[in-house]
Design goal:
It is built from 15 helices and 18 strands. It has helices at 5-9, 15-22, 33-42, 74-81, 130-139, 143-166, 173-188, 254-273, 280-297, 305-310, 314-317, 374-381, 384-387, 392-398, 427-434; strands spanning 26-29, 50-53, 86-88, 97-99, 102-103, 110-111, 125-126, 192-193, 198-201, 226-231, 233-235, 238-239, 242-247, 363-366, 369-371, 403-405, 408-412, 417-419. The strands form 7 sheets. A 3-stranded mixed β-sheet has the order 3-4-7, with no helix packed on it. Strands 8-11-12 form a 3-stranded antiparallel β-sheet.
Length: 443
Amino acid sequence: LPDEYAVWMGEIRSLEHFKAKYEVDEVHYTDEFTSVLSIRSSTPSPSRLAELHSSPSAGSGGLVPCSHKRTQSAYDQEERARDGCIYLHSEGLASRLLVLRGENTDSGRQVSPPPCLDLLPHAKVDSVTLFPAINECRVHKSASELEVMAYVNRISSAAHVEVMRACKPGMMEYQLESLFQHEVYSKGGCRHVAYTSICASGENSAVLHYGHAGAPNNRCMQEGDLVLLDMGAEYHCYASDITCTLPVSGRFSIDQRLVYEGVLRAHTAVIAAMAPGVAWPDMHLLAERHILQALLEGGILRGELEDLVQHRVAAIFMPHGLGHLLGIDTHDVGGYPKDGPARRTEPGLKSLRTARVLEEGMVITVEPGCYFNKYLLHKAEADPVIAQFFIWEAVKRCIPMGGVRIEDNVVVTSSGSRSLTNVPRTVEEIEAVMSGASWPHSG
């Protein structure tokens, strides 16, 4: 880089700085690429990861980033990962180049090798081995990674509590988003959020990804509304993803409480059942059963539970999957490895972002929901086989409620699971905190 770079961007860091910062064995300039590999081809060495940086004499040439490192937002990371990254194998490093090539099964984004491979026409390029290996590294969290994820969950949880306390009728949805961002940055140093915040009140909360540019959290919240708040901070590249649903007025109505407590039962049951060896689709089905049972008991559905399960009625109320892998992307990689379980095809289940068997060290969101989405309900009402299970007067009474989602970030342990999230969850806890009670409760 030219000396002038320091005027605009600050100190030009040494190779040793990047070696220490990223904990790699070697760092070289990009204009040394071919010469380094030529030397390595005749000098075998231990396995190592090489990260390439622009040479001071190379002008403003771009960096070749490691796909599992990033310095800006989650969006930036995924954009950079598409450029690929070179990892140099120990069999004489220039004789075998491991490069990233593959597809994120969640986002559909392609990761491609860097264009500088054209400089090595005789190299043996392996574009098969590395991508699934890196994915598995990202799926299974180290103790250090879990420490960072616990921190960002703690900061995000505290911010959710402050938003809960501030929420009042007459506020705009985006004011809650703004407060959350202020809290995580001013009190936790989290400059970025992990994804676009969803602050959905009234019928908006039945729209799963409300909050996007076409619906930018811009409704004025009213007395009697529920508001669904799906917000998570990012810290040192690691994401949190937490959802709370609460009554804008500070008190749940009878119908709101019925639906909320059904979702909470599902949420609690799944976390209690999670452990290594448990198949994730089974957890989705467990959540559906608890939600369906609550709707039966509340007079919103009728019939036998097994008939509702068989006809996939739950997918009308919970069309999304139960949760997703979480890490340095909100919807992290590794959901559908080539040698893993295939995606299910049934309604609801086909939306699962992974069908894997749980393993120790995974971090996955648990986010059951129940939504009264008019589009899905209209389709159900037009189907006589499905419509027979609905008590339509009660269903239509609940449409203004929108929906409920409850989401924790949960790590799979050797014997079970542990939630990293700490926010009020029961009706009583939420109402107490919204009335001024402390959190966590002091006793």
